[in-house]
Amino acid sequence: MNYDRGDVVIVPFPFVTSEGALQKARPTLIISDHSIDRRFEDLIMVGITSRIVEDLRETEYRIVDGTDAFKSSGLVKTSVVRCEYIMTVPRRLVARRLGHLPDETMEEIDIRLKLSLGIKG
Questions:
Q1: Which residues are 86's β-sheet partners?
Q2: In angstroms, rounded to a whole number, what is the distance separating the alpha carbons of residues 83 and 29?
Q3: Cβ–Cβ < 8 Å for 29, 106
Q4: Neighbour count for residue 89 (Cβ, 10 Å)
Q5: Contact criterion met (CB below 8 Å) for 95 and 9
Q6: Distances from the Cα of 62 to the Cαs of 25, 71, 72, in angstroms?
Q7: In the CATH hierarchy, which fold is given to the domain comprising 7-117?
Q8: Domain chopping of the chain, boundaries
Q9: pLDDT for position 17
């Protein structure tokens, strides 16, 4: 399956606890642009969490239940895109696609990604 920038997808994440290592399916947002020729089939993503805090950081973006972005995302509850939590994942690890964020939302997320990476302008 093809995945695009702005897709919200589910991937298994490893967690290490006192009981050992586990994997849990988590939503992520694809931020890499696959309209350009790439050497590898990996996807660059940022994490999404449903753990909501009142004081969002500059590198976080809230997707609120009831908004257009939320409705198209496929998420089940208000969530936060964590632009400081960037990972590269092989395409084959994506379990499924939930939805896609609108261009306007991705523009807001791009601002936070630039802040997270220290990119000016």
A1: 46
A2: 9
A3: no
A4: 17
A5: yes
A6: 20, 13, 14
A7: SH3 type barrels. (2.30.30)
A8: 7-117
A9: 67
